[in-house]
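From the methods appendix. Each design record in this collection lists the tokenized structure first, followed by the designed amino acid sequence. Records were kept in a plain field format so they could be parsed without special tools. The example shown here is representative of the layout used throughout.

RECORD:
FOLD TOKENS (312 positions):
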């Protein structure tokens, strides 16, 4: 099935202006979108996409919302199924699993997550690779993140745009960043699930941790779920420069700005809406378009295929 064959026969509704991108897979029953300060690492042996949600990011919180595609009302969170986006609470509750339950719970022999590879705009490799740019493994610093595991689905870039990569020299202020080059960079990660209930063989999409389940929705024919996981600025957060956005990723690594160079990604098409303001095309709500002084947060990744514990 071709990734971009989203014709009128596929069952997808036509996207509205503020809708997330269409799924990569025409038969997707759920799509998980990851955005903001989230670092992804694929564990090839376990067949799990492991992700580190930075929980020490100032003025950020982790929101999770579930909707049926094309509908505005939220299925999660609700009064019955609440979610606390506070980073401290998220870190305490980790690790989390967002998985397909075929009636057996979380079963390692059912893990099947895979990466969409190739040279097209949806390739997983479009996610900004910190290890590649630093040319070294970057083990994650403990106590800085909460783990979210995704053991099922096809993982890819849901939206890729040209972005300017800048280098901040060691022991230099952010204002001294110099342009390195422009490359395609993902600013939204997608994970498509195409499992579906058939007769008495039921399948559900479930978010859970060791304390229990947060939500459970049956993957029924004719339904498509959108699950948005965003590590984004809090409402009414102050205006944040680079140190408050993309550069907060460096809390995850043993990188010393006094000793090491850092990289800054500037994508003029990508932003979060903060301060409770309505969306502004190409920029943050009420803050103007992204610049070196007001960059967006976008997902990142490492080179390794050994998961988060392998230096990427």
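DESIGN:
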């Amino acid at each position: 099935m071709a990734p971009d064959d989203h014709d009128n026969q596929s069952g997808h509704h036509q996207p509205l202006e503020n809708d997330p991108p269409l799924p990569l897979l025409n038969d997707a029953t759920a799509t998980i979108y990851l955005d903001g300060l989230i670092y992804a690492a694929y564990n090839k042996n376990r067949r799990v996409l492991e992700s580190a949600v930075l929980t020490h990011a100032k003025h950020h919180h982790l929101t999770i919302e579930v909707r049926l595609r094309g509908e505005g009302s939220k299925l999660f969170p609700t009064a019955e199924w609440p979610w606390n986006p506070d980073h401290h609470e998220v870190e305490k509750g980790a690790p989390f699993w967002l998985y397909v339950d075929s009636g057996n719970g979380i079963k390692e022999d059912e893990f099947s997550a895979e990466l969409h590879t190739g040279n097209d705009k949806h390739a997983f490799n479009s996610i900004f690779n910190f290890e590649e740019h630093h040319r070294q493994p970057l083990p994650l610093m403990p106590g800085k993140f909460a783990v979210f595991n995704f053991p099922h689905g096809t993982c890819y870039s849901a939206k890729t745009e040209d972005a300017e990569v800048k280098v901040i020299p060691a022991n230099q202020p952010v204002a001294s960043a110099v342009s390195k080059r422009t490359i395609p960079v993902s600013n939204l990660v997608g994970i498509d699930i195409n499992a579906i209930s058939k007769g008495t063989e039921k399948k559900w999409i479930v978010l859970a941790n060791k304390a229990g389940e947060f939500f459970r929705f049956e993957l029924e024919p004719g339904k498509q779920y959108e699950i948005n996981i965003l590590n984004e600025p809090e409402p009414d957060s102050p205006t944040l420069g680079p140190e408050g956005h993309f550069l907060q990723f460096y809390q995850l690594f043993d990188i010393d700005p006094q000793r090491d160079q850092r990289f800054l990604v500037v994508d003029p098409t990508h932003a979060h809406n903060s301060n409770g303001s309505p969306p502004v095309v190409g920029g943050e709500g009420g803050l103007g378009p992204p610049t070196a002084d007001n960059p967006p947060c976008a997902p990142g990744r490492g080179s390794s295929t050994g998961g988060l514990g392998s230096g990427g």
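APPENDIX NOTE: Helices lie at 87-93, 130-134.
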